[in-house]
UniProtKB/TrEMBL annotation:
Organism phylogeny: Bacteria, Pseudomonadati, Spirochaetota, Spirochaetia, Spirochaetales
The entry's keywords: Membrane, Signal
Taxonomic source organism: Treponema saccharophilum DSM 2985
Pfam family, one: OmpA
The protein, known as: OmpA/MotB domain protein
Recorded coiled-coil stretches: none
Location of the OmpA-like domain: 945-1076
Gene Ontology cellular-component terms listed: membrane
InterPro entries in alphabetical order: Bact_OuterMem_StrucFunc, FlgD/Vpr_Ig-like, OmpA-like, OmpA-like_sf
Span of the signal peptide: 1-20
């Protein structure tokens, strides 16, 4: 519950010791020593400092017979007097009551505090200004003393503010030339003004204050109070002030401010490879970085104040730091030494990170380079030959030189892209070369043939394998052996060991004989089954030349004659007879028919991704299924057909992910790429497959959504019936899907918009307040949430600030206490406590009022003229204390019902009013030493002295004139209450005086019956007094106490020409006099 704040003044102290025999009140009454000025704002009735409360401390109050609290204006004029209450306890006997009037030794009631509500004696609120208040008191010896004067300032004027509303375009800042948001404001000079920027969650991110000043125009650069940049998003500015009197400035806000910062983007990439070898045997002694540290344009007012590049290992240990305050380098080279000049450990994974700080407080997020490695160790391989001599003569014994190759793999060192093997003769001449790629075979086999497929001559040979890793480290191993063939008469050479006859392609069979032959038989057989598939022979009487056969892979014998031979391993056999009759035999190497090309199947789930952001697609997963081959290669090409990345496999292609980086780990530029896979087997069969149109898109994705109104009321009244959401995206391309929901702050979805078809997001969405079920949503606080999914994997979630949807007008209630209000200064029920309550506080209050009307004497169901009113803006006073006086100082009338209307209008324009009545008790006022009750609410039949009730027939026609049943019931209730009061004062004689409202003010109307005015007023008022007497007797008042008098219109209390109020002259007064 909201606390009711009041201005509490210094205590006025009364010391009981002052009333001892030797002292007077003059020695007792004193004000608080620490005098201070109090401030109140009674007119706004917002429950904050609406009243001045002055505590009074009494140690002994037996001898105080009267006191008065006086408030004076700056001219010294008394504008309000508050006095002590008269004791008229109903339980006192009449003797006790009169004794209280004439016995000074009995102290009057002294309240614990005196409350001034800012109203003057004339019923009006005191105008703004400085006032003085003080207390006077009188003791039983008529000693009178006045306290020193204290000050109270009445200030009903709230702080003034004028806040310029920028255009929507001017609400967006942070980029380009719009680096600040300008707040243009002016206002009144106050003790303190406060301006705050809050984010969409309502959290204050920046606060600015002005002391003893007006609110000044200023620029906000998007940083918090610690100087750190705030997050990109939607913000709200609000400026307010509360003065010393508790007046608050009118709401002044700028909503939907969008901060989209141009944050300088640093970067660091490897300039070249990611391996180096400061102490190795190669040339790559250092590693270089291309560094990007933006320097702001001097015109922007921002500048670079600090930068650094640090090199650290995988444990976070920093070894080298480069830094400065300006002029950052574009390239940095590191030699592998720490800041002390010591060489760092090789084999570790290192990274470089770049940081920068700017004058506006922005610090870049650390950006790391790709991982790189320092490797001083060359590659290692071991060779071991199967024998020291081989003889490739086709006899099946030591026909090949087999060399085992064992590579020592390094998990952390620089890899080798290609191992190279060479065969050299004794003269050092290279006769054959082999490129193994990244994976040298575990067993190298040489068949003794040179690069031209000619059998090498006998002699000493060597095999050397060498490589240079990516760090520049080189290594080689060499092994020697001998080629030694027994001189043979016959041999068969092949130009290839595998072929595909369908390409078309042929294998060339080259038989050779060292003697003259007269016949030969050449055949090709399946090496596994021995089945002959092709044959050629010739026999002559003289020397025959052996033919060179270009075999196309077709059979020319057997049941497969003319058919293509199946894939498999084959061998050529040659038998000859020389001129001397000697027979010779020879066979070739095995060779392969292979018509099946390498095969590969590729699949990617998507082709657009964003490797540099917090995307859910930072790489493209490539699923591959391929045949096992000697090698597979995949190359990544950019849109210029330049190879930027290469992958190799031995055997089958493994599934992998393309991370959008080059071989050094540097991020590739945005664009379209392709990945081309290829392999060629020994038979020359080739396979190529390409994954096209892989798109790298690292463009920034930002989105903002704002709600136009803080609250709306979809009730169809034409005012704020809809809520408009505005959507702004930095990237409107490549949207896969989007969804916008309106949810309660607890997360319950009320309304949904979405699209997964064309990927187009509307620039605005208008909500009519209806949920997905078509019904108007419940009154509540809501948030608009936007979710965007991009094809490249970025997911953006953004939300509006909280706003209100409400169709229910304010629900109001009024409670008053006491039930019967009697402001007659008797110390009992003299103040009416009015409790105002609004149940549904979801929408702020715009303004409210409480109006109390005078009763309509002709119709108690209707309102009369406005009697008293109060009200306020935004805040509602939960309790009001009313003294029963009008705004002009008039006291309420006895036994009357005063209608009231409590009205609240919220900021959505919805208005509610609750009405009721305040029942006024019989007021017993003291006039000198007499008590008097004036009751205008007793209604008589026109020109008669009775309560005759009118008679109405079935058609509603009045057949007998009289008062209404409601008036008759009121008369009965009032007279019974008067009887109850009179019976409390049984020692009083009561004179019942009838008073009339004279129309003319003439003696004729008073004394004579006329057709113009009716019965004479003196006679009629006397008769009515007698009728009241008879009624009171029937209610238990003894008749011997009751006297009557008819005053007619001779004693008016309101000018008879005042048509709105002259009804008050028509009354019955009860005068109480002490019996003699």
């Amino acid at each position: 519950m909201k606390k009711v704040l009041l201005s509490s003044a210094a205590a006025l102290i009364l010391s009981g010791a002052a009333f001892a025999e030797s002292k007077t009140v003059a020695e007792v009454l004193e004000s608080g020593k620490n005098v201070r000025t109090n401030y109140i704002s009674p007119k706004n009735t917002d429950g904050v400092q609406d009243s001045l409360r002055v505590p009074i401390q009494i140690k002994d109050k037996r001898y105080v017979v009267s006191w008065t609290f006086i408030i004076e204006n700056e001219k010294g004029e008394t504008i309000r007097t508050i006095g002590y209450k008269e004791k008229r306890d109903g339980k006192l006997t009449l003797k006790e009551f009169f004794k209280s009037l004439i016995t000074p030794k009995k102290s009057v009631d002294i309240p614990k505090e005196i409350v001034w509500n800012g109203v003057m004696d004339n019923g009006e609120f005191a105008p703004d200004g400085t006032y003085q208040y003080y207390l006077t008191a009188t003791d039983n010896n008529d000693n009178k003393k006045t306290s020193s004067k204290n000050r109270v300032v009445v200030d009903n004027t709230p702080p003034e503010i004028a806040l310029a509303q920028p255009s929507q375009g001017d609400k967006i800042f942070g980029e380009g030339a719009k680096t600040v948001f300008s707040v243009n404001q002016s206002g009144s000079k106050e003790d303190s003004w406060t301006g705050t920027f809050t984010n969409a969650k309502g959290e204050v991110v920046f606060k600015k204050s002005w002391t003893d000043s007006e609110p000044l125009t200023f620029d906000w650069n998007g940083t918090d109070n610690d100087g750190l940049p705030v997050a990109d998003g939607v913000y709200k500015y609000e400026v307010s002030a509360t003065d010393k009197a508790g007046n608050k400035s009118a709401p002044a806000t700028i909503a939907n401010i969008i901060y989209s910062a141009e944050k300088p983007a640093t970067n660091i990439v490897l300039s070249g490879g990611k391996y180096f070898s400061p102490k190795g045997n190669g040339d790559i002694k250092t590693i270089s970085f291309d560094v990007k540290i933006p320097v702001p344009d001097p015109k922007s007012g921002n500048k670079l104040v600090k930068w650094s590049v640090e090199i650290f290992d995988d444990k976070g240990t920093v070894y080298r730091r480069f830094d400065g305050t300006d002029n950052p380098p574009s390239t940095i080279t590191w030699d592998g030494k720490d800041d002390s000049g010591n060489e760092v450990t090789e084999g570790n994974a290192y990274q470089a990170t770049v940081n920068a700080k700017y004058l506006n407080g922005y610090e870049t997020a650390p950006v790391n380079s790709p991982l790189f490695t320092l490797d001083n160790t060359p590659p290692k391989i071991e060779l071991q030959a199967s024998s020291k001599v081989f003889s490739p003569d086709g006899d099946g014994n030591l026909d090949n030189m087999e060399i085992a190759q064992k590579v020592e793999k390094s998990e952390t060192g620089a890899p080798v892209e290609n191992w190279k093997g060479t065969i050299a003769n004794a003269r050092g001449e290279t006769i054959r070369e082999f490129d193994f790629g990244a994976f040298p075979p575990e067993k190298f086999v040489w068949d003794g043939y040179d690069a031209q497929n000619q059998l090498a001559e006998n002699g000493d040979y060597s095999y050397t394998i060498s490589a240079t890793d990516k760090a520049g480290n080189s290594a080689q191993q060499k092994i020697a052996f001998k080629l030694d063939t027994v001189p043979t008469e016959l041999s068969i050479a092949l130009n290839k060991t595998a072929f595909n006859p369908n390409r078309p392609a042929e294998i060339r069979i080259l038989p050779k004989a060292s003697t003259d032959i007269v016949s030969y038989s050449l055949s090709i057989c399946d090496a596994d089954t021995g089945k002959e598939v092709w044959a050629d022979s010739r026999k002559g009487d003289s020397r025959i030349q052996l033919p060179v056969v270009n075999w196309d892979g077709k059979a020319n014998t057997g049941d497969e004659n003319g058919m293509q031979c199946k894939d498999g391993t084959y061998i050529a056999l040659l038998d000859t007879v020389s001129a001397s009759g000697n027979e010779a035999h020879a066979k070739s190497q095995k060779f392969v028919i292979d018509t099946v090309p390498p095969a590969i199947e590729l699949n990617v789930p998507y082709s657009v991704f964003s490797p540099a952001t917090d995307s859910k697609k930072t790489a493209v997963p490539v699923s591959a299924k391929s045949s096992a081959e000697e090698s597979w290669t995949a190359r990544v090409y950019n849109d210029k057909n330049e190879s930027v990345r290469t992958y190799t496999w031995k055997g089958s292609v493994e599934s992998f992910s393309f991370d959008g980086r080059d071989a050094s780990g540097n991020l590739l530029a945005d664009g379209t790429y392709s990945i081309a896979f290829s392999s060629e087997d020994a038979a020359g069969n080739k396979a190529t497959e390409t994954i096209p149109n892989i798109v790298i898109d690292n463009r920034e994705t930002k989105s903002y959504v704002t709600a136009e109104s803080d609250a709306f009321s979809p009730n169809g009244n034409g005012s704020l019936d809809t809520q408009k959401f505005t959507i702004r995206n930095s990237l409107n391309e490549g949207i896969e899907s989007w969804k916008f929901t309106v949810e309660t702050t607890e997360g319950t979805v009320a309304k949904t918009w979405s699209d997964k078809t064309d990927g187009k997001i509307p620039q605005s969405i208008v909500w009519d307040g209806k949920g997905d079920d078509g019904n108007t949503v419940a009154d509540n606080a809501y948030i608009g949430k936007l979710s965007i999914v991009y094809e490249k994997g970025n997911v953006i979630d953004t939300a509006t600030g909280v706003f209100i949807s409400c169709v229910t007008p304010p629900k109001l209630s009024v409670k008053t206490k006491p039930k019967y209000f009697s402001p007659d200064n008797d110390g009992e029920d003299d103040d009416l406590f009015i409790s105002l309550k609004r149940e549904n506080e979801i929408v702020p209050i715009k303004d409210w009022s409480l109006k109390i009307y005078a009763p309509d004497p002709k119709d108690p169901e209707k309102k009369g003229p406005l009697f008293w009113t109060t009200g306020g803006k935004s805040s509602l006073a939960e309790q009001i204390i009313w003294d029963g006086r009008s705004n002009s100082g008039e006291l309420v009338q006895s036994a009357m019902d005063y209608p009231y209307a409590f009205t609240v209008t919220d900021t959505l324009g919805m208005t509610s009013t609750v009405e009721g009545k305040i029942e006024i008790d019989i007021l017993v006022v003291k006039v000198g030493n007499r008590l008097k009750m004036a009751v205008p609410s007793i209604i008589f039949r026109s020109d008669a002295a009775d309560f005759g009730v009118r008679v109405v027939d079935a058609s509603g026609k009045v057949v007998k004139s009289g008062i209404t049943p409601a008036q008759a019931a009121t008369n009965e209730r009032v007279l019974k209450r008067i009887a109850e009061i009179l019976n409390k004062f049984k020692s009083y004689e009561v004179t019942i005086e009838g008073h009339a409202n004279s129309q003319s003010g003439t003696r004729i109307e008073e004394e004579q019956d006329t057709t113009q005015y009716g019965p004479g007023l003196l006679k009629l008022s006397k008769q009515r007094a007698e009728f009241v007497k008879s009624q009171l007797k029937s209610y238990g008042v003894k008749g011997d106490r009751l006297n009557t008098a008819g005053k007619g219109g001779t004693e008016p209390i309101v000018n008879r020409t005042d048509s709105e109020n002259n009804w008050k002259n028509r009354r019955v007064e009860f005068i109480l006099d002490k019996k003699k």
